[in-house]
Amino acid sequence: MPDGNAKPARAEAETKFGQGFLRDIWYFAALASDLKPGKLQRYEILGEPVLLARDRKGEPFAIRDICPHRAAPFSAGRLTAEDDGRPSVECPYHGWRFGTDGVCSAIPSLVDGQEMDVSRVRVRRYPTVESQGMVWIWVSSDPRFDGEPPEPPPVFEGAVGGAPKFVDHMDFDAHMDHAVVGLMDPTHAPYVHGQWWSRKKKGQHDKAKAFAPSERGFVMTRHAPSKSNRLYTLLGGEPLTEITFRLPGQRWEHVAVGQRQVLALTCLTPVNDKRTRITQIVWTDHWAASVLRPWFKHMIRVFLRQDGDMVNLQNEGLKYDTSLLWIDDADKQAKWYQQLKREWAASRREERAFRNPVEEVTLRWKS
User: Fold this and answer.
1) How far is residue 38's CA from residue 53's CA, in Å, rounded to a whole number?
2) Beta bridge partners of 263
3) 3-class DSSP state for residue 80?
4) Whole-model pTM?
5) Rieske domain: which residues (predicted)?
6) Which of 14, 46, 267, 316 has its CA 20 to 30 A from that of 240?
7) From CA 243, how far away is CA 222, in angstroms rounded?
8) Do residues 254 and 129 make contact, with C-beta atoms less than 8 angstroms apart?
């Protein structure tokens, strides 16, 4: 007999910190340059195997990377085409073919007289969109979802034309929740990122930053960045920066220096419940990016790996299921993230509009 409380209980577990993932939302999957026409690539996203590829015309698509016949991965097969020219993926085991819509188009072992409607055999399709040099997939709460997402993927102001100046990525051995709050944490820098080239003044200083709600998240409103950080002084002029977070896991800093701008975007994609991929992408038309390119590239890599090392250190405590203590104002952004996550899940479950719980406020901390 079905348990009427099973669905609410499951939803509550999925929104508990360190558990579950948001659905009915866009996730960053790959850089557009990572996908080549005709090349099949296997990814793991939200604990599911995903085949991500381009057809011969260059259009990206994504389907579940498991053939329903004998579980062989499609990514080990090849991209082919039907008689009408439509692209399809051929399983390497028995040659079953599936279109980019996830619908089976052929089962070669069938002979005359063996009636079977092969189109009733399907694998999960993930709606896929290429935007601003990135490939996004829509992860629905319904694995049988066969429509189009109700909205486009996010668009980021400040992504100047052309290829990114810098890209780096690594996997954190942590659930996405821990990765998110670790990257938005405003007070760890003096302890984790204390290089001479990132901070020119010793000691910690009082900070006061104004925050406001933004689309599915919050924004640290435009302000002059800290004068204690050497990185901003390299840009010259009087830079102004704005830092935004949006569900499920995008954080971007938009810096304007006169007519020049820098967009530093961090995308978090859950690989599974114990691993999160962090991708950092920087676009800029500022001259310093070209002159100091090797140094900037090294700096970005060092910062990301320092955060990764701290995540690994934190895991030494988390394996004992230690409760976490959150304080105001330093951990307010982490609290907002948890509220946003719960509200998104509730709004999808109750089929209503999302109501942002964040309110305008000035937060104070020392770092």
Assistant:
1) 7
2) 254, 283
3) strand
4) 0.90
5) 27-137
6) 267
7) 8
8) no
